[in-house]
Amino acid sequence: MLAETFKKPKPILGRIRLLPLPGSPGWDGQWEALIARAEQEATALASGGVDGLIIENFHDTPYSRGRMDTAGAIAMATLTRRLHQFTDLPIGIAVLRNDPETALAIALNTCASFIRIPLLSGAMMTESGVINSRLDELLRYRQHLKAELPPLMIDVSTNHLGPAPLFRSPISEKGGERLNHLIHISKTLPRKIGQFAVILPDRDIEADEITAFKEATGDEVLIENQTSARVAEAYFEKSDGLILDAEIRKSTGNHPEIPPTIDMAKVEELVNSLRQVVPASEMNPDVFLRR
Q: Which of 90, 191, 231, 241 could be 11's S-S partner, Cβ–Cβ 3.0 to 4.6 Å?
């Protein structure tokens, strides 16, 4: 799925954390600031050499357990279309803790390349309470729209609560209880839903456990680098790709209320170091902005 979507092995992706959108508790009416921040982050990530972008309504906190506000969905779609004018990179959509229907609608109407779904099986404990899977709603909505699902990126983490295993014996003899929990959650994902890859946060799995996870599940694995940029190379080597998140943002100095923006130099330095893990002959050089 990853090679087809990003046209290269081991893609490196970047997250665009949108400022509060219309309809969210933090929306301040500053549409110009919202656009400027999205454009800055997209430009910095693309110029730094990433292979794809994920647009997220990251600052719409506290997150709703239901559907996204209509005004927010329209704003997110508008921003996605605007960012398509800045880059040819594949763009993905992620909405709330778990609103795959809105993510699908935005993706279909903006020619996005994939959607990220934080929860597709079981449930998850969050700051807003327990959130349940919306797989049934997603499939019904897809049928309602007469549309094919785009490639999916599905989060699997230790926060997920899955159905109890049929057998209590370890699924993987190579890992401990935490690794077996991640494997079990992944095995509950519906295999006939279409193309998908699993996203694992590096805080939940050790780099040397990734091979055991892949052998047990057969899934492609993207690692979200949350803990430290210093460990990125070890995770990148064992996984099928990486989502940059740690230590790529600018310091806000004396203005902590301003969400940090992406530092292009930090992105470029990290991407270049990761590229050394994979032979240059396998890399696609067409990752820059349109000129």
A: 241
How many residues would you count in the chain?
291
Q: Which amino acid is at 13?
A: L
Exposure letters 220-257 (e unless 16+ CB within 10 A, then b):
bbbbbbebebebbbbbbebbbbbbbbbebbeeeeeeee
Of 73, 72, 80, residue with least CA distance to 55? 80
Tally DSSP H helices, then E strands, for the chain: 9, 11
Q: How do beta strands 12-17 and 242-244 pair?
A: parallel
**E-state strands within 135-267:** 152-155, 160-161, 196-201, 221-225, 242-244
Residue 209, pLDDT above cutoff 60: yes
**What token pair was written down for 209?**
């456990």
- The proportion of the chain whose per-residue pLDDT surpasses 90, expressed as a percent, equals 74
CB burial of 271-287 (b: ≥16 within 10 Å; e: otherwise) equals beebbeeeeeeeeeeeb
Helix (H, G, I), strand (E, B) or coil at 134: coil
In the Cβ-directed half-sphere of 223, how many Cα atoms lie within 13 Å? 30
135-159: pLDDT as tens digits:
999 999 999 999 999 999 999 999 9
Q: What is residue 36's three-state secondary structure? A: helix
Rounded-to-integer distance, Cα 221 and Cα 54, Å = 16
> How much is the pLDDT for 251?
74
Amino acid at residue number 199: I
Written as six digits, the tokens of 40 are: 């800055």
Give the gyration radius of the chain's Cα atoms.
18
Q: What is the pTM of this model?
A: 0.90
